[in-house]
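Hey, quick one: can you model this chain's 3D structure?
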Amino acid sequence: MKKLLLLLLAFTTVYSVNAQIETPQPSPLSKLEQRVGVTDITIEYSRPGVKGRKIFGGLEAYDKIWRTGANAKTKITFSTDATIDGQTLEAGTYALFTKPGVETWEVYFYTDLKGGGVPQEWDDSKVALKTTVKPMELPFSVETMTLDINNIKTTSATIDLVWDKTYVAIPFEVPTDKVVSAAIDDVMNGPKVGDYYSSAIYYLESGKDINKAKEWMDKAMSMIKTPRFWHLRQQSLIYAKAGDKKGAIKLAKESLADAEKADNSAYINMNKASLKEWGAM
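Sure thing. Here's the predicted structure for all 281 residues.
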């Protein structure tokens, strides 16, 4: 019995030593992933709170470089090159530093990711890109510091910082057309039906050479044994944009008939709207 008690005591002691109590982080870690065009952007940072303090010009002094978050360095990754303030930022991961000011903020994309916080010895040679933006005062306070990507378009967006009563936006552009066009050119050396089809739709939606889009779509449709209503719908739009209204109407009617068989109300309505627009209904 004595041996059993000693054994139980030993297990209890080991468990007590190894047990870990998990408590909330004052500045919780966050990870944001966003695609802009064909560029993937990731931001990893810790989110401090206001907690009744004066933030900019107080906790974070003006005209002093800030880690733009808490704990470890805030990191931002671009899967392709980006353009900021007319400057090229090469694809890769950077530490995001800022220098808050009353009238303007300086923004730094820093190549050294080691350690936490602002480097003890700042090295200008490690600044991949620097730009200046203007802060905006908000009519309300945001408790938790937030980094986000907004105003998203095919080729541009903004990195937004909001904390307390301050909002800062860092505009950037991404080479969507360059990347997609290069991929199209590469794929056209030996394209498959999906390549022709996707490229044609991209040219249609991007306002590029519509005759080339029509050529690629016709090629794609010739490779599809039985085109369905969604294929025919896109082909009709390309024909209409290319000025071939008669061909567009014929294709829209075929798409409508197939959509009615499939009882797809969305494509039925879209085709009817186009036919009406083209004077066929």
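One thing worth noting: Strands lie at 29-36, 39-46, 70-78, 82-84, 87-89, 92-99, 105-110, 127-133, 136-150, 156-173.
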